[in-house]
Amino acid sequence: MLDRLKDLWAHRELLFNMTKKELKVKYKRSVLGFFWSFMTPLVMLAVFALVFAILAGNGVMQWYVVYIIAGLFPWLFFVNSVTQSVGTVVGNPGLVKKVYFPREILPLAAIGANVFHFALQMLVLFVFLLAIGWHFSIHLLYLPLVFLLEVAFTLGLCMFVSAANVYLRDVQHFVEVATMAWFWLTPIVYLVGQVMNVLGGWFRLYLLNPMTNITELWQFIIYNPHYYAPESYEAGAMQVNYLSFWGITGTAVLSVLLVVFGYWYFVRKERGFAEQI
Amino acid sequence: MANAIEINDVSKMFKLYHENVQSLKEKVLFFRKRGFEEFWALKDVSVEVEEGETLGVIGANGSGKSTLLKCMTRILYPTKGTIVTNGTIAALLELGAGFQPDLTGRENVYLNASILGFSRREVDRRFDEIVAFAEMERFIDNYVRNYSSGMYIRLGFAVAISVDPDILIIDEVLAVGDEAFQRKCIERIEEIQQAGKTIVFVTHNVDITKEICTKVIMLDQGEVVKEGSPKEVVNYYHMAMETEEPGTEFGNRKIVVKGVALLDQDDKAVMDFYTGQTMKVRVLYECSEPVDDPVFGFSIDDYRGFTAYGTNTKLKGMNLGTLSGEGVVEFEMNSLPMLDGRYLVSVAIHSRDEKTVYHWLDKRFPFDMHSDIDDAGLLYIPTEVTVTPL
Question: DSSP state, A103?
Answer without folding.
Answer: T
